[in-house]
Amino acid sequence: MLKINLRHLENDELSVAGKLPVAELDLELKDDLLRVEAPLEYDLTVQRLEDAILVTGSLRLMLHCECVRCLKPFEQELDLPDWTLHLPLTGEDAVSIKNDCLDLTPFVREDMLLEFPQHPLCKPDCGGIKKTKAVQPAKNGGNNETKPSAWAELNKLKL
């Protein structure tokens, strides 16, 4: 988890950098076209304001995707270079603090999920799966009988 001890913020800001394992992000992806296998990388500065916490920095996460048009696998990096988070410590929107620690993981998870592509494309102009020519059925030893289509039979009806 990405926890910040508020006691370390009393005199100065705090810089934290590292990697958050995928299991701790708890993304619960239900999309077969997206997978997260590499940890989230973060480089953050945390400051205590009068009645709030301000977090600024960058977040990076590598996605393993399949294109919705051509189904080719590709990688896409989600990069939030100017990520900012303002967390109030008082009032009805105050964040919960346990043992003087604030867990930033749910906020990071939410902002990263909002960046996920809804329809991942390997490239913006992907043409999709290439169409192949239809294979002609083999002729049955010179038997050229054709079956009448269902539409032809319906055309014979006199309504």
Q: Which helices and strands appear, and what pairs or packs with what?
A:
Blueprint: E1 3-5, E2 14-20, H1 22-25, E3 34-36, E4 40-48, E5 52-66, E6 73-88, E7 101-103, H2 105-115, H3 150-155
Antiparallel strand pairs: 1-7, 2-4, 3-5, 4-5, 5-6
Shape: elongated
As residue ranges, the low-confidence spans are: none
Number of helices: 3
**What is the number of domains?**
1
Helix content: 10-25%
Strand content: 35-45%
Q: Separation of termini? A: 73 Å
Mean pLDDT: 85
Largest sheet: 5 strands, antiparallel
List the helices and strands in order. EEHEEEEEHH
Which structural category do the helix and sheet elements fall into? mainly beta
Number of strands: 7
Computed over alpha carbons, the radius of gyration is 28 Å
Overview of the molecule:
The chain contains 3 helices and 7 strands; from the N terminus they run E-E-H-E-E-E-E-E-H-H. It has 159 residues and is mostly beta strands. The chain has one domain. The strands form 2 sheets. Strands 2, 3, 4, 5 and 6 form a 5-stranded antiparallel beta sheet that branches. A two-stranded antiparallel ribbon has the order 1-7.
Features:
single chain; 159 residues; mainly beta; five-stranded antiparallel sheet; two-stranded antiparallel sheet; 3 helices; 13% helix; elongated
What is this entry, summarized?
Helices cover 13% and strands 35% of the residues.
